[in-house]
Every structure is written in structure tokens, then in C-alpha cells.
Amino acid sequence: MEVGEVVQELLNSDKTAIAINPGFGPEGFFDISKSVVVSWGVMAFLMILTLIMTAGMRVNNISKRQLIIETAVVKLKSLVRNGLGEEAKEYTSWITTLLIFLGFSNLVGLLGITPATMDLNVTAALALQSIVLVQVASIRKHGGIGWIKSFAKPLAMIAPMNILELGIKPLSLCMRLFGNILAATVIMEMLKTVVPILVPAVFCIYFDLFDGLLQAYVFVFLTSLYIKEAVE
Predict the structure, then answer these.
(1) pTM, rounded to two decimals
(2) Would you call the peptide bond into 154 cis, given omega within 30 degrees of 0 as the criterion?
(3) How many domains, the chain?
């Protein structure tokens, strides 16, 4: 099977998880896609995990479990804060949450589930959300007038290019995440065809674990970088 055929098969596969036909509106308009269900599943898992892991926390005489959790959270927030810088540190919690969500969303591939990030609609929504946050951060820092004037920096003649970046940045974030997850899935499908047992299992660990976490970090790193630039 050629690479093009694998890509077409993945992109053209039925993405509907729950078909809803209320009797009005375009056919398929109300259907719920598999990527939405997977995203809901990841969020539900993280919420339940959070409730379980934070139950019984206390200030003094903390348990080993609480120590491990607090250490992990502090390390993650420190990693994110270094990318954001001091002036944008108030967005640390949001970016950390995004990192955890993307990381777990990409890791579901280890369970044989297609990651939600392999749906262009999901990556586009995440990218759009991130860029909106970047602009909000800029407006909060510089005010509405200052935000508008920032498009003319450092020279007024490059204002059209700066405005164009409003569309380029989310497109870049969207396509980078989608493309890398799709590429990893294509490679795995090709490996399963050529060597059906041992080799795919080894590469599955690499692409779903290492590469999945790496792509999550790259996404939030670029978002942090954009926010840092916006508040300078």
C-alpha cells in the first residue's frame, strides 16, 4: 500500500461517532464526530483523575502521593513560566492545562484510539483559541489603542504583514500539530502492513509516547512565545 493511499484512507474514513437526525437541518449537521467524543473522554478522564489525586490533601504532614503531585505540577508550571516570561506569568495555569490536555490527547494512541488531534477541526479550534488568547493578552497589556498601534511596529510600512500574521500564526499552529500526528499515524499504518507484529509495537511507543508529548510541548511553546511577544 502506498503512502498516498494510506493518507486517503485515513482522511476519508467515517468520522461520525453518534449520528443525530432531528428531522430538520442539513443531513449530518448535528452528528457528533469521533474526535469530539475522544476529546470529551480525555477531559472526563482528567477531571476524574484530578478529583481522585487531590482528595485528602492537607497543608501539614503531606502524603507521598501529594508530594509527587505537587512536585509534578510545580515542575510543569516552572517549565511553562520560563517560556512565558515574567510579564506573562499570569497565563501559566492556562498554558499548563493546555499542555496536559494535548499530552493526554496524543497519548490515547497507545490504547489503539485515534487521537482527536488527527482531526483538522480540533487542531484548528485549538490554534484559534490560542491566537485569540495572544491578542487578548496584548490588549490587556497595551490597551485597545496600543494593540492597534502595535501592528505598525517597528515600521508603519510593514503593518499589512503584521496583520497577515493574525491568520498565519493560527494556521501554522494548526497544520504543524495536525500534520505531525497524521504523519505518525501514516507511518504506523505502513509498518503494520510490512511488519505486522514486533516492529510496529516498538515504533508505536515512540510515536504515541515520545512524539505525541513532543508535539504537545511544541504547540504550547509556540503559544507561550507568541504571548510573550504580545506583552513586551
Answers:
(1) 0.82
(2) yes
(3) 1
